[in-house]
Every structure is written in structure tokens, then in C-alpha cells.
Design a protein that fits this description.
single chain, 345 residues, mainly alpha, two-stranded antiparallel ribbon, two-stranded antiparallel sheet, 13 helices, 6 strands, elongated, disordered C terminus
Amino acid sequence: MIRKLMLLLAAGLALVVLALALAGWRLHGALNQPLQLEGERLIEVVPGDTPGGVINRLEGEGVLNGAFWLRLYWRFNLPNQALHSGEYRLLPGQNVRDLIGLWVRGEVVQYSLTLVEGWSFRQVRAALARQEKLEQSLAELDDRALMEKLGLPGVSPEGRFFPDTYRYVRGMSDLDLLKQARNRLDLVLEEEWGKRAEGLPYRKPYDALIMASMVEKETGVAEERGQIAGVFIRRLRLGMRLQTDPTVIFGLGERYNGNLTRAHLLEATPYNTYVIAGMPPTPIALVGREAIHAALHPAEGRTLYFVARGDGSHVFSETLEQHNRAVREYQLKRRADYRSSPAPR
């Protein structure tokens, strides 16, 4: 009787060992199987997806087999591992272990959008709308409603976002990216404001941002930022009008066709610095750190005028007589490749 019981126990143990060996073999095969791909493929994991659900989906699409064993593997080996949402890039030659490694490391596909110094907010919105991988949540909102979404009701969007390259993953929205750019601008402006020169005619950091936007739009040569800021600051202190073309162009909006006329310079708008005293009411463009720094550290000197040479640089003058001579030389005898604005970036 005891002998028979021992034989039964041995047989049962053998079956268990055999079953475990078979399960291990099946699991090993499931983990090391090559993914069935004809070429590169992106798979999307959305918020709420579970590892088991995505594994089942991939089995249904013929990418892999043995979903049961893979779910079992995840449950017992990676019970606390989060599955990050986003897109994962699969390549021919990868196996299931490679796929699980991507999930464990959270190696989602990243995209990028670059906001450029000197852009208007209209250009920012157009760039966001072209990003197919971004969730478009702002398309139906006007600028006012958009700024309310950002927690800035009644604030102009012009110049309120920092020009930089921003990374994002599928599932993020245009609003998410704008929040990053807004926060980055606030941080940079705060840092630069804390290191500002003394005696500047600004009441608050926003005034410096307005000045920086004019410097940004006038500068074609980086080394001239401080000089241009110096001219504007001295004009403000003397009560002279700033008379800078980019503000006039901004005030014209979509009416500007590339040709700035004398009539435009005489037209009364809140942004026409040939007509208004002081600075315009808002920034006129996105500004980088260098322009903000220049606005807060203007170059010392006595120059009150500048005129474009036609190569992106300027001639600076202390007197109106000197300025008029420079105008005659560089404006009335323009070179064939003349340009008064910064080179495209």
C-alpha cells in the first residue's frame, strides 16, 4: 500500500515537473519569438490600456503569439510596472523581449516642435496646427479663449511663449505644449529681471518683454542687440518717439503685404511708434533670452538713430545729420540684395 502511494506521489511529482518544464518552454518560446513585422511599425498605448489588453490586441493583429503566457509573465514578474502611454516603434528583427523592454523603459516615440524667435502668435498657432501627432484642442478657440484656458484671462498672447524646441509624445495636446512654452518664458524672464541693470525705465518685467520684442525684430546681427536696446532706452528717456518699423507692421496685421508705405507710417494704431509716445501696449513677437538680456542690459553710448545697411546690420548715429547721411547712403542707393529685416531663421 505504501509502495503504491509512493509510486503515485512520484508520478504526480513527475507530472508537475513535466508541466512546469512545458510551461517554461512555452513561456521561453513566447518571450523569444520574433515579432511578425514586414517593416517599421508604431503601436499606440493610450491612457487606460493594460499590458494584457495590448498583448491581446497584438496577438489579434498577428504580431505575436502566446498571449496567455505573456500575460502570465507580466503578472508575476512585473506586477508594479506601469505601462506608459504613447507610441512605441517596433522594427523587424525584434522579439517579444525587446517589446517588453521598450514598455519597461517607457521608450515612447518623441516628436519635436520648434518655436522661432521673432514669430507672431499667429505663426505659433499655425505651427501647432501642423503637428499631426498633437491632440488639437484649441483650433475652435480664439486667442482670448485660448489664454483663458492657460489661466491668463485678458492677457495678450503675443510674446508670452518662449522660443525653443519642445519635445512631445502622442497623446499630448497643443495646450500642453503651450503651457511648457509659457512656463519657460516666465522662468527666463524672472531670471533675467533679477539681474537687470539699474535705472531702466521699466515698471515691471512685462515692459522689458515689450522692449525685447522690438529688439528681436530689429536685430539681424546678434552683436547689435545691446546697441539697439540702448538707442530705444535713450529715446524713451528723452521723450523721443521710438519710430521702429516692426511695430508699425505688427499693427497693420494681415493688411501688410511686404511694402511699408509713408501712409502706413502716418496711420494711427496702438502699435505705430511713429505716432504714439513710448512703447506699444504688448510685445510684437516671440523673444529669446538674448533679446531679453539686451533689453535689461542696454549698451551705453550716445546714439539715437540707426539705419539698415541692407545686409542685416545697421549704421548707428548720434545726430540727425549723421543719420540722414547714412539714410542717403544705404536707403536711397540700395544694393540689389538689400534687406532691412533679420535674415530668416
